[in-house]
Write a structure and sequence with these properties.
- The chain has 78 residues and is α+β, with helices and mostly antiparallel strands.
- The chain has one domain: YefM-like domain (YefM-like fold).
- A three-stranded mixed beta sheet has the order 1-2-3.
- A hairpin with a 2-residue loop joins β2 and β3.
- The chain is globular.
Length: 78
């Protein structure tokens, strides 16, 4: 399981914010999806899924999604 660090991540860390993790879609294709999603859920994290180094999708824990809804932020509206 590879974790990618970008310049934007480094800038966020200096500002005291936690950067999102980045995972290559190939890791999902190699049967790692269950493990990756379980870890994100257990740690209440958010991650980019990358294809050819570019963001393809975002995965968030269910708890984080519920907090967004409670704050009247529905990601399906965008």
């Amino acid at each position: 399981m590879a974790l990618y660090i970008t310049k934007e991540d480094d800038d966020l860390e200096r500002k005291g914010k936690t950067p999102m993790e980045h995972y290559n879609i190939g890791e999902f294709n190699r049967g790692q999806s269950s493990k990756l999603i379980r870890n994100l859920s257990e740690e209440d994290k958010t991650a980019f899924i990358l294809k050819n180094g570019k963001p393809l999708a975002v995965v968030i824990s269910y708890e984080r999604y519920e907090r967004l809804l409670a704050a009247n932020i529905d990601v399906t509206d965008y």
